[in-house]
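[INFO] parsing input record for Trk system potassium uptake protein TrkA
[DEBUG] input buffer:
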Amino acid sequence: MKKTVLLIGLGRYGRHVAEKLHELHHEIMAVDKSEARVNMVLPYVTNALVADSTDEEFLRSLGIRNFDLCIVAIGDDFQSSLETTSLLKDMGAKYVVARASRGIHEKFLLRNGADETVYPEKQLASWTAIRYGYDHLLDYFELSDRYAVYELPMPAEWCNHTIGELKIRQNYHVNVLGIKQQGALNVEITPQTRLVAEDTILVIGRHEDMHKYFQI
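[DEBUG] output buffer:
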């Protein structure tokens, strides 16, 4: 469903967020103090303004309650990020996601009104360490402290067997979400689905089970 999004802060991170939101066909109001940054995102947003997001009068003029989502992507000025987050919630913002650059920033942002925080550097560092720390892990997406989605080469002992024959859920405590066949993802998985060596497999499971059964 299309959302109306207020995006504040148009550095590298904010600009990438704008591009992806545009790709997903959302309506975006973008704000930054830098005219150069605003000009760079014009192709991807519905409207863009050069302004200081800590200016209470300016924020009120935007009609904050009308946005489905507010993203505070300011990364180089924590005081401005904190003030903006607090003002947005005071003005009735439905949901505020704020970017953190340090662990302590997460705590302060949450205490001052952020519904959720993102910590791009930390999240990407974790993904990089796990993804490239194992030769046989092709991709990885963490869902929580205990669960993640993993893309793996087809385990040799699974080849030429069906999912039902292997009893994967019972024996390995993971669920098969899909199979990639020559780059195409097949999610219509049944107990009769036969596994072949050339494919890769997407599974969801607990970290401890993935480590126990797949050395991840």
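[INFO] The mean pLDDT is 92.
[INFO] shutting down worker
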